[in-house]
Amino acid sequence: MAHWLYKSEPSVWSWDQQVAQGDKGTFWSGVRNHVAKQNLMAMKKGEKGFFYHSNEGKAIVGIVEVIKEYYPDHTDESGKFGMVDIKAVKPFKRPVTLEEIKAEPRLKDMILVNNSRLSVQPVTAEEWALICKMGGL
DNA sequence: GCCAACGTTGGC
DNA sequence: GCCAACGTTGGC
Asked: Which residues form the EVE domain (predicted)?
């Protein structure tokens, strides 16, 4: 089962807002990048991902799960892009900051470190396990 | 189909 | 607020 990482600016859409949606979750719209789109299309229901706060906080704050697979993004006028639905699963006991991730040699190949602009990223099994541990889960 | 110009993202 | 990195656009 694959793992993912979703980036959001808290001023636009925060973890707290995601949690407030409960089990019904929300659609993850607004992706306008083809690599990110490929990642969205590869997602399967039930797969989990990290929720990362960019700009403010710069930390992974919790875990989300895919509850609906790829379908057209109604906010995209061109009709080329789509989205998935995700819901909050559980918060980290403590956030794992970008600083900590950069300081960990085993995480030096993470896309988050090397291509910070990609908004939806795959995470390897090793990275997943390590970051969960760092987050107190 | 190349590439310069421009816009956006996100860390610092 | 600056700027590097990246993606997209449009002229040729």
From this structure: 2-134
